[in-house]
Amino acid sequence: MANDTAPLGAVRAVGPGLLVALGAAFSFGMSGAWARGLIDAGWTPGAAVTARVWVAALVLAIPTIVALRGRRHALRRNAGMIIAYGLLAVTATQLCYFQAVAVMDVGLALLIEYTAPVAVVLWLWLRRGERPSVRSVIGAVIAFAGLVLMLDVLTGARVHLAGVLWALAAMVGAAAYFVLSGRGDTDLPPIALAGLGLLIGAVGLSAAGLTGILPMAWNIHDVAYRFGTVPWFVPVLAIGLLATALAYVLGIASTRMLGSRLASFVALAEVIAALLFGFLLLGQLPNLVQALGGVLVLAGVVVVKLGEPRAPDFVEPVPEPEPGPDPRSEPEPGTTAA
After folding, report:
1. What is the pLDDT of residue 102?
2. Quick check: is 320 in a domain?
3. Domain total of the chain
4. pTM for the complete prediction?
């Protein structure tokens, strides 16, 4: 397995990395509220997510081409990883999640998908021997308890075996997103990996729609939100530009700065962002229990951060003194060298 932890130079930039990761989480988190407006206007979830990914792929096309100039060797060397990223981190995650919510409650499906950080921890432990610390385990438990409260799955959510299996598949895709995004040996800029992965994902979702696996229906009716009515292309562009293109670029960059494990837990803030934008765009106000869950999620992330292995202090090497002339080769006083 290639290196997917933050290098020493990035360890000093954990603060900026956290800010970038939170930016990614909040960008991803706004997608649900924008998409809900489209769905209420008659779009199917599959059509909304496919439009979202295609807009992002097209927006990132030119920046991706520019970023790959002089890096064709990296493109050839990482072709398999890029395809896996597009199929797992984009197509499988989106497709499997929407298949899950078709037969089970959204909250429970999200809860299962957001166990991805646990899968990342287990992968790094089994694959690289990076055993989680006690603090990391405690933080994971706290964050998971917060998710249970935030997603409100304790009030009679429907459990469906096929839905659970689809949600678990979405979790695998989400875990692959963090593991593959954190690889630091690819020589691929974050914007290039995001652009290529989204393009592959868009093709995959379109193929699923054409074969009938993913139901597709859309229209050009105006879309209503809390602040008023907007043309259909406003939420489509918002989801594509902010909640997908920007979100994936920030997500890949932050994962390389923080490492897969910490970045996957910080990404749980996406649920908090989803509740916030649900209130701002749709007027959906979280209850007191969900607010308490948000506090627990943030507390769990902090504990996980405190449980991260500390990087060794960097010590500037002291240059060795240059060897002087050998005293035995010096001529004795009063004599000359032969």
Report:
1. 67
2. no
3. 1
4. 0.74
